[in-house]
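Summary for the steering committee. The consortium agreed at its last meeting that each partner would contribute one worked example illustrating the joint modelling workflow. Our contribution is presented below. We chose a case with several input lines so that the handling of multiple components could be demonstrated. No manual editing was applied between input and output; the record is shown as generated.
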Amino acid sequence: AQKITQTQPGMFVQEKEAVTLDCTYDTSDPSYGLFWYKQPSSGEMIFLIYQGSYDQQNATEGRYSLNFQKARKSANLVISASQLGDSAMYFCAMREGPGPPSSASKIIFGSGTRLSIRP
Amino acid sequence: NAGVMQNPRHLVRRRGQEARLRCSPMKGHSHVYWYRQLPEEGLKFMVYLQKENIIDESGMPKERFSAEFPKEGPSILRIQQVVRGDSAAYFCASSPTSAETQYFGPGTRLLVL
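What follows is the complete predicted structure of the assembly.
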């Protein structure tokens, strides 16, 4: 069965430092996608970054990068040069398959990591 | 291009009443997903719909909950005879195909008194 594990309930980081948020996953499907979402205190879910299981390179989006280690089944999020506005809950998530069967389209979320940036 | 829209943003209901949550997907997106988030937890999948079809409802409670995505108009998540345990944030997401990234709406916070 699919499972996403985020072992850090909360983290405090000094502004401008880099931060790594841990995520491990479990799936028997050889094809899957991994996501990170940010949820600020206002409550909305903001898509940050996506990594496909067959992607050869680690995904990057601005200050966000995904450290994808397939053999270890980990997909850590790295935020470089953290900013006060990065304070939020961060969720790692996974979807099995690239598409059909259609039941594989649902996303499974981890329990989240609350990141707090200190000025 | 407007994002996923949900309304209302906040909904208060008394036990036994009905709650109707609406979701308008992004333009060009025909796949809609509903998720529920209990306090201090991650999102849990409820149902996946395409226009006029329920594709996967494996996360929907068997009773009181229903969802639709008609040919015209928004997707609706309906909760009948609400109970206090239904209090949660309900998120809708949409994507252009089932294989692509899901973009989330702002959520509806349901409070059952």
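Residues 89 and 114 of chain A are 4 Å apart (CA to CA). The longest strand of chain A covers residues 88-96.
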